[in-house]
Amino acid sequence: MTSSEDYVTYVMDQARGPWALRQRKMFGDFMVYVNDRPILLLCDDQTFVKIVPQLDGLMKDAACAAPYAGAKKHYILDVDDAEHVRRVLSVLEPITPLPKARKRRT
């Protein structure tokens, strides 16, 4: 099951802040990019963020699960609390690297 367009729109609205947001369909679900950094993974109408030490305080009560079979566990982000979403994004945006450019096949 994939995330619904309504859920993706809702997450994008909740994440609005002083950064550029875009979403891209991938892996059968969606990735949300914050200033071109892949930060939010949307799978089955749930939002996942990578487990990093910098989020220990903010996400201490969050549930953890694998977003898809074979994936590492991630925090499940409560997107109903827009202020919390923005705090998490403000922590993750500076520490998440930009994706490396892929070489094109010729």
Q: How confident overall, as mean pLDDT?
A: 94
Strand percentage, roughly?
25-35%
Total number of distinct structural domains: 1
Low-confidence stretches: none
Summarize the biggest pleated sheet: 6 strands, antiparallel
Radius of gyration: 14 Å
Classify the fold: give the CATH topology.
Answer: Yope Regulator, Chain: A
Order of helices and strands: HEEEEEEH
Helical run tally: 2
Protein name: Transcriptional regulator
Could you explain the architecture of this structure?
It comes from Bifidobacterium crudilactis. This is Transcriptional regulator. The chain has 106 residues and is of the alpha+beta class. It has a single domain, classed as 2-Layer Sandwich (Yope Regulator, Chain: A). The chain has 2 helices and 6 strands. The chain has helices at 5-14, 82-95, and strands at residues 21-26, 29-34, 37-43, 46-50, 64-65, 74-77. A 6-stranded antiparallel sheet has the order 1-2-3-4-6-5, covered by helices on one side. A hairpin with a 2-residue loop joins β2 and β3 (37-43). The longest helix has 14 residues, at 82-95.
